[in-house]
Amino acid sequence: MVARSLGLPANGALFEAVARSVPFRVMARHRREPEVVKALLLGQAGLLGEEREYRWLRAKYGLVAPGGDLQRAGMRPAHRPGARLAQLAELFVAGEGMFARVREAEDARELMDSVCAAGLGADAKRGILVNAFVPVLFAYGWLRSEPALMEKALRWLREEGVERNGAITKWQRLGVAVTSAADTQSLLELKKHYCDARRCLECAVGRSLLGR
Fold this sequence. Notes:
By secondary structure, this protein is an all-alpha fold. It has 3 domains: 1-95, no CATH class; 97-159, no CATH class; 161-212, no CATH class. Helices cover 66% and strands 0% of the residues. It has helices spanning 2-6, 8-21, 24-29, 34-44, 52-61, 81-94, 98-104, 108-113, 122-143, 147-159, 166-173, 181-195, 204-211. Helix 4 (34-44) packs across helix 6 (81-94). It is globular, with a radius of gyration of 19 Å. The model has no long low-confidence stretch (mean pLDDT 93).
């Protein structure tokens, strides 16, 4: 989920596939070797070609790259795939016990202050919180029947500011009140799964409008 978040919409699915293509036990084995972790992720994303160390790691662990083309056009240097995957490697190396910290933290700001990687800005951290930590924490609370964790995840969303993008701007122009990340995430999901898919008859908003 962190990998997908760092990939942004353009590369999120491929970043997730890259992360899934390297078994966790392999990553954990090399946690004390940052350059190896970086080589594993960059190599699986096709950014190292046949570089010697990556080729050896790929053969040793029988890795299969997910394939696919990374999107680079129009991206600022900080958002380019290589930079983001290097940050993912750094987060993994420094993130032992990360889920325990997410589960035990009460304050989201304090939690995110502990998430550090070279060049990782406030917007990227916010993306990790909203798109990775919150849904995973909520799902964990639901699976374990711990409503306090579910409520904490929702509270973090309500405390987080409004995301600025074209879709949210259009909702606001229609008069929809948007006051927190909880609102923006709800509206983005509604647009993606109902509006864009033209499932108006399955949507309470669509049925209400058509019923008029």
